[in-house]
Amino acid sequence: MNMDFMASLSSSFQELGDIFSHSDMEGFPIDRQYTKTRFPLTSNSQRRDISNLGIWTLSSAKLGFGIQQLREDSLSTYWQSDGSQPHTVTVYFPRKVYVSEFCIYLDFKSDESYTPSKMSILIGNAMTDMREVQNVELEEPTGWYNFALGKLINGTYNPVKTHYIQLVILQNQHNGRDTHIRNMKILGLREEPVIAFPVFIENSYSKYTMLR
Question: Is residue 165 part of a domain?
Answer without folding.
Answer: yes
